[in-house]
């Protein structure tokens, strides 16, 4: 693909001419050569990074064919392509130095379903969970279950022959393929399906493109049948690349070319459509969660659990369990997985039973638990305790924890992170414990820590050694460890790549297949793709092609990470630790993370995309000699730093592309808690904007919004005059044109009279007298826009026997931070923190009414202030404070109507989440409260008011909020959420405090 600079420039010109010709050919999709788009497509879920030359977003089969046909013309023949789906592969399968063919953005249609014949036909970009959500009401599901199922595409699953939990019963993706529609490197359309061998041989006799393919594949598979059966492992996970064994039935009476394409990692064809068999959903399901004294006990006990006729057996080690306990995900599973106080579990097996007969499952479970009870009584096999879960929703929560474990490993402390490169070995289950003992000894010899989880029923364990790949010495361990693990799996009759394919481990292919069978693979590659245009270097190369097979030592993402300044790594390690897991690509509209990506489907508009952009921006600034200060200094003492950001070379393009991506961020902060590694984009965004605007200046609207907290006291005094103007169509249009904002909320015309704050008087009270008081911290939006909530709080606290003292208004600084006014934000944080520290010395509880603003004191303030400046004051959210009160004094009438609580996404993803607490409070008051999972309402502070964001804001509201608001009595915890409902529905939901106060 061109090794020197001149060749690279020449190739770039060829790509440009190709893109221009493609756009002129009637191509209806999109082609993007921007720095930002090629950057976010340069990584997947692996340790590798390879920049493509362009990204093609096809919208149809015709688009795919046009792109490939054009590449057969003249100078374009030198171009190569890499098909890409969800980008969830852990071995760099979808990375290419050529042109990416991305099917995930647009080709997401479920084309046809036939429940009588039990099949569905889909485009390659359909997401696995999307498909099952569609099939569930019909009583069916698509079986292979992946940890990345909420963002992995069917096309990607076919190309990696994906499998996961339950594969012992349900098999792999290839076991469910009925037909494929593919396009070869030259644009030839190839349809594949199972057929009688006689029909296949008839096609093979034809002098045609299809005939040549059939002939060569049949010759390779039939003539080498004995050798294939000897070499291919006798495992549930038979992943080999090109599946020479299963192209033919055992009796060689049928032929299925789809089995060659399954697992081919995009090196043979672009999978545009797949016809899949679907299975009826079995109505009964039980999960037995077994705790062990150590992980080795869990592994050695797994064959017994498989013999209990279970559907699947999943395992998790103590490292993963402890990471899960520290994550928000544990809140949803603690009731099922927490062990008794006197038990410390260092291993967990999850045994699933499902079927159509409840009594049959109960019999199996009873037989298992009887044996478990005996083991616990005799203190044998390391079994400590177990729990049983039958509710399907709860079981899904437990599996969500297990699935998130993949990403949670990336959140370990320190520079050494568990990384995927030897993590999907497969051996016969009966050898797994012994294999792992040797595997662990190998890693222990290198003094490496590691996390483990996996599918012990199939003999597959995910082992991720912790390495700092920015350290050259640790980077050098990749190859020797891989070599040893490859030999170890062979020793135990296993496979080095039991689930996640080859990718940059393709160098081990010749050793696994042996020279004779590897030659047959090359023959197949040749008849499909003689020019080596599709994913070159992966799995094998064509005959008469000397392309080097992709190896584990490169191209590593760490070669870029090493160049990021150490002070930026230290200050923004939450963002720069993004490991590519891609949970932020979750297609589910009710998932809080990430709202902007859900609207645009543009990966630049995701936490992962923005983290990559921020890191690359910091790297290129350093390369240009720009000194980026550490985070705290950046907010205040900027004069001592060179703050003029560079626009040299590549940065001329990247500066503005990063700004575009950051502008689409809602700053909801869901990523900072919902992401497994806690990537904090709003914090990085504020830092970037701080520097960007020093070079390019600011629009007037930024100054207005950034200073709104300063302006509100003056505006409030003229509320009666301003409100008629703010609410008029003329001023709304004027605001859209002049400031770019619309539908602004009306100011409160009267502020409630609470007890005035007098520090000296309060300090003279005894502690028992102080206990009868509560200090209300006034945030700018509640105080100046929702005085009725303050009044309701005063009323409610009074009914509880407490005197509400309204603290003097101090700016919070949230709007300054969101807009990147970091110098001003630190000044605000310093002043407000000093005041709140002083108030906290009274030892009277302080409460805030809008959680999104309360969290600023614990999060953003701590990031910009020293410990002395920040102090140790703590502001409780109103729900935290209420939970600590004796609510028996409240007498509420019977509330017959159904009440639905919709929580602010910033709040619900925080460790101090509201929904569960409010449900407990309302339950104590005798009121049934429903709290469904919902995504972002689309307002998120000022985002929904910006004119340019109207389509995105409305789309988000319609996706996850509208149906609840229109079908039930809704209360909402967020000020911005209540404002959003008001502008779209014409009425404003109450805050839970208002609701309770109304009934007092």
TrEMBL record:
> What reaction does this enzyme carry out catalytically?
(R)-2-hydroxyglutarate + A = 2-oxoglutarate + AH2
Q: Where is the 4Fe-4S ferredoxin-type domain?
A: 656-685
What sequence ranges are listed for the domain FAD-binding PCMH-type? Answer: 48-281
Listed EC numbers: 1.1.99.39
Which keywords annotate this record?
4Fe-4S, FAD, Flavoprotein, Iron, Iron-sulfur, Metal-binding, Oxidoreductase
Q: Give GO terms for biological process.
A: lactate catabolic process
Q: Which cofactor does it need?
A: FAD
**What GO MF annotations does this protein's record show?**
(R)-2-hydroxyglutarate dehydrogenase activity; 4 iron, 4 sulfur cluster binding; D-lactate dehydrogenase (cytochrome) activity; D-lactate dehydrogenase (NAD+) activity; FAD binding; metal ion binding
Identify the domain of life: Bacteria
| Listed InterPro entries | 4Fe4S_Fe-S-bd, 4Fe4S_Fe_S_CS, FAD-bd_oxidored_4_C, FAD-bd_PCMH, FAD-bd_PCMH-like_sf, FAD-bd_PCMH_sub1, FAD-bd_PCMH_sub2, FAD-linked_Oxase-like_C
Give the family from UniProt.
Answer: In the N-terminal section; belongs to the FAD-binding oxidoreductase/transferase type 4 family.
> By what name is this protein known?
D-2-hydroxyglutarate dehydrogenase
């Amino acid at each position: 693909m061109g090794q020197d600079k001149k060749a690279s420039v020449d190739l770039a010109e060829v790509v440009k001419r190709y893109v221009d010709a493609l756009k002129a050919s009637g191509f209806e999709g999109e082609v993007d050569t921007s720095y930002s788009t090629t950057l976010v497509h340069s990584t997947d879920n692996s340790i590798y990074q390879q920049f493509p030359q362009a990204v093609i977003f096809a919208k149809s089969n015709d688009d795919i064919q046009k792109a490939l046909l054009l590449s057969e013309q003249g100078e374009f023949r030198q171009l190569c392509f890499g098909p890409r789906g969800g980008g969830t592969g852990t071995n760099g399968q979808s990375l290419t130095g050529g042109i990416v063919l991305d099917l995930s953005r647009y080709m997401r249609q479920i084309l046809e379903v036939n429940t009588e014949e039990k099949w569905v036909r889909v485009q390659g970009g359909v997401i696995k969970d999307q498909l099952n959500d569609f099939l569930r009401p019909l009583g069916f599901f698509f079986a292979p279950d992946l940890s990345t199922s909420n963002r992995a595409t069917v096309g990607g699953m076919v190309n990696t022959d994906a499998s996961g939990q339950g594969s012992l019963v349900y098999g792999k993706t290839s076991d469910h393929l009925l037909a494929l529609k593919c396009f070869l490197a030259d644009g030839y359309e190839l349809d594949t399906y199972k057929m009688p061998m006689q029909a296949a041989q008839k096609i093979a006799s034809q002098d045609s493109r299809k005939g040549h393919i059939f002939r060569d594949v049949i010759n390779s598979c039939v003539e080498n049948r004995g050798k294939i059966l000897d070499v291919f492992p006798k495992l549930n996970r038979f992943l080999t690349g090109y599946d020479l064994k299963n192209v033919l039935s055992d009796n060689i009476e049928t032929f299925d070319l789809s089995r060659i394409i399954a697992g081919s990692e995009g090196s043979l064809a672009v999978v545009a459509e797949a016809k899949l068999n679907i299975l009826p959903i079995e109505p009964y399901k039980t999960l037995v969660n077994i705790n062990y004294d150590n992980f080795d006990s869990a592994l050695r006990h797994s064959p017994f659990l498989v013999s209990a006729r279970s559907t699947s057996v999943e395992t998790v080690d103590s490292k993963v369990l402890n990471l899960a306990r520290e994550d928000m995900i544990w809140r949803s599973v603690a009731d099922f997985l927490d062990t008794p106080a006197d038990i410390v579990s260092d291993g967990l097996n999850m045994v699933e039973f499902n079927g159509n007969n409840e009594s049959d499952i109960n019999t199996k479970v009873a037989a298992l638990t009887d044996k478990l009870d005996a083991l616990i009584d005799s203190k044998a096999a390391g079994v400590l305790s177990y729990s049983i879960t039958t509710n399907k929703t709860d079981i899904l929560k437990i599996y969500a924890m297990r699935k998130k474990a993949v990403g949670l490993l990336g959140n370990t402390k320190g520079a050494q992170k568990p990384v995927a490169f030897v993590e999907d070995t497969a051996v016969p289950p009966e050898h797994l414990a012994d294999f792992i003992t040797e595997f662990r000894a190998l890693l222990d010899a290198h003094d490496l820590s590691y996390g483990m989880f996996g599918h012990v029923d199939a003999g597959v364990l995910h082992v991720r050694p912790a390495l700092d790949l920015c350290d050259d010495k640790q980077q050098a361990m990749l190859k020797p460890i891989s070599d040893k693990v490859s030999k170890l799996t062979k020793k135990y009759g296993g496979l080095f790549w039991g689930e996640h394919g080859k990718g940059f481990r393709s160098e081990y292919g010749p050793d696994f297949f042996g020279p004779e069978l590897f030659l047959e693979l090359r023959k197949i590659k040749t008849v499909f793709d003689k020019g080596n245009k599709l994913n070159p270097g992966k799995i094998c190369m064509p005959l008469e092609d000397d392309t080097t097979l992709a190896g584990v030592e490169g191209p590593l993402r760490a070669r870029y990470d090493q160049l990021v300044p150490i002070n930026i790594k230290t200050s923004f390690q939450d963002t720069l630790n993004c490991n590519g897991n891609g949970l932020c690509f979750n297609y589910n509209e009710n998932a809080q993370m990430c709202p902007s990506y859900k609207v645009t489907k543009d990966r630049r508009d995701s936490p992962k995309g923005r983290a990559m952009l921020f890191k690359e921006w910091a790297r290129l600034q350093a390369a240009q000699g720009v000194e980026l200060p550490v985070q705290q200094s950046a907010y205040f003492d900027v004069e001592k730093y060179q703050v003029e950001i560079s626009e040299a070379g590549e940065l001329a393009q990247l500066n503005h592309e990063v700004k575009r991506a950051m502008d689409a961020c809602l700053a909801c902060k869901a990523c900072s808690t919902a992401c497994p590694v806690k990537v904090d984009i709003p914090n990085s965004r504020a830092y970037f904007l701080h520097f960007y605007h020093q070079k390019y200046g600011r629009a007037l609207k930024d100054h207005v919004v950034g200073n709104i907290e300063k302006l509100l006291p003056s505006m409030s005094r003229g509320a009666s005059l301003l409100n008629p103007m703010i609410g008029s169509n003329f001023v709304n249009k004027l605001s859209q044109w002049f400031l770019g904002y619309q539908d602004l909320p009306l100011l409160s015309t009267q502020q409630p009279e609470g007890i005035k704050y007098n520090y000296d008087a309060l300090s003279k009270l005894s502690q028992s007298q102080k206990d009868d008081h509560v200090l209300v911290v006034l945030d700018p939006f509640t105080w100046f826009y929702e005085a009725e909530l303050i009044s309701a709080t005063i009323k409610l606290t009074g009914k509880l026997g407490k005197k509400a003292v309204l603290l003097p208004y101090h700016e919070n600084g949230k709007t300054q931070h969101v807009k990147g006014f970091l110098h001003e934000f630190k000044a605000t944080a310093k002043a407000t923190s000093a005041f709140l520290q002083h108030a906290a010395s009274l030892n009277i509880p302080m409460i805030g009414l809008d959680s999104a603003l309360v969290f600023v004191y614990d999060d953003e303030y701590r990031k910009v202030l020293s410990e002395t400046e920040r102090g140790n004051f703590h502001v409780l959210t109103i729900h935290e404070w209420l939970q600590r009160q004796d609510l028996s004094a409240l007498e509420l009438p019977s509330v017959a109507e159904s009440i639905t609580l919709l929580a602010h996404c910033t709040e619900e993803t925080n460790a101090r989440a509201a929904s569960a607490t409010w449900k407990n409070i309302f339950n104590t008051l005798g009121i049934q409260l429903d709290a469904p999972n919902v995504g972002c309402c689309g307002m998120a502070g000022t985002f929904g008011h910006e004119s340019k964001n109207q389509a995105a804001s409305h789309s988000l509201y319609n996706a996850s909020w509208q149906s609840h608001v229109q079908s039930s009595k809704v209360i909402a915890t967020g000020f911005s959420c209540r404002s959003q409902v008001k502008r779209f529905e014409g009425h404003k939901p109450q805050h839970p405090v208002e609701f309770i106060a109304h009934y007092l």
